[in-house]
Amino acid sequence: MKNRKVLIIGGGIAGLAAAVDLARFDLEVDIAEKGDFPGGHAIRYTCKATDACVKCGACRVEEKLKAAVEHPGITIKAGSRVKEITQNGRISIAIDQKPQYIDPTRCNNCGICFQKCPAGAIIRGSSASHHPFYAIGENNCLYLRDKSCTKCQDACPEDAVSLDNEATISTSEADAVIMATGFEAFSPVDKPYGYGMFPNVITNMELEEILRQEGRAKIPSDGGTPERIAFIQCVGSRDAKLKHLWCSKVCCGSALRMARLIKKRQPETESTIFYMDIQTFGKDFEQFYNDAQEEIQFIRAIPCDIFRNDDESLRLTYFNQASHERREERFDLVVLSIGMLPGKDTENLAKLCGLTISETGFVDSAQHHNGKGVFVAGAVRGPMSIADAIASAGQTVWQVLNYLKLHNE
After folding, report:
1. Which of 95, 229, 358, 379 places its Cα 20 to 30 Å from the Cα of 32?
2. How far apart are CA 143 and CA 67, in angstroms?
């Protein structure tokens, strides 16, 4: 397979897993990742092991990212978007890459730019494999807004920051393309739960990141330890009003694992899970669920409203189906388990790639490729777990290899 090249659109877990597998066959692999850092959503997830591994998959994301970053045959282009794909013999791809304000060959990840920025425009990575570990958020940068601040550039001891760098447009050719652009997380701003207004209402993905960075659950408003946490399931999923009729498949597993992890590390914290029904996951689910019921309160109801108290705690109201009455409970922290949606770029990229979109907005799950060298992998086909995304990538790699073998002949 030497002298063969594959472009992967998307540097999340599916894209990284596919890249690592393809590189083992001496294929040259380019990854075009639109974000500032590779790893997708899953690189922000925390390991949820208590006494033993609970198969959450977080460590596998780290492993794939590290392997991809270190492999000489894999090139990761962060801040890149595919603008055009044409097929004429080989596949020609036009890529628009945002300015590289921080030079990866000079940056030593000292963090001085992060400390000096007065506007919070310096973004930190989530993994030790991210290099540079810092990026400049264009929406908040004062220099990019009105050229009023160069503190990060002036303070950098390695001259790694250059705020005048410009975007680049490049073209390349590949023998196959994999669309692995993943999903978009539902924004619960318009839900009646006060997200964006109440500091102690967060998403499950934000809790993942807090646990990853801090090692414990905390109350955002004051940094204290929560006595009571509420998890609200199916926020943005299985919602007829939003026309999001699908289950996001991973939210139940994530909530149960995080609640048990918190109980292990913070025994004084009690967790309650509000749910429609619990989505099973893994072959050991029944035993896991039985054990969880000894540590976690489960209430089969979806809360109606959340109100903020003077001390920043939260009053949550719900309808108790058993007693047929409205109830109200107090919590220090409310966690919204948000669903998986099709990415905003999915439809446009699918058209560029010659793929079709299903009624849900994801790439048609029955379509693995377009027959002309463009393939699909991971959650761009629909909600799936980390393990399922890796398995999907593996299947796609074999399809690519078979295609290239036939194409070569």
Report:
1. 358
2. 35
